[in-house]
Amino acid sequence: MATALVVEDDEQLAYILRFILEREGFEVHQAxxxxxxxxxxxxxxxxxxxTLDVMxxxxxxYEILRRIxxxxxxxxxxVILLTSRSQEQDIVRGLESGANDYVVKPFKPDExxxxxxxxxxx
Length: 122
Hints:
Elements: E1 3-7, H1 11-23, E2 27-31, H2 34-43, E3 49-52, H3 61-70, E4 79-83, H4 88-96, E5 101-104, H5 109-121
Parallel strand pairs: 1-2, 1-3, 3-4, 4-5
Helix pairs in contact: 2-3
């Protein structure tokens, strides 16, 4: 079974993301803060997809993304940044930092599903 990593500090949103990804057939691993995410990147096998919040306790999403891109086996894992930051400079920074996609919260579940399917299929 394909795996997914959800990095999200909002419990309700993490639950929704987990639900969406499990319905898409993924086994979901979840990290509620940057420290837990760093630990998972160090110990888990690379997943099929990562959804990553930018504003996290302890370590921000950009640092987690940098770590993902620097970790053997994780360099090509598709990463969707999922954040409430909607300014153009935030989107540009996210994509230039190595994210495959950028989704602004609140998001539409069907749109997120379509973006996940597109990235995983590639």
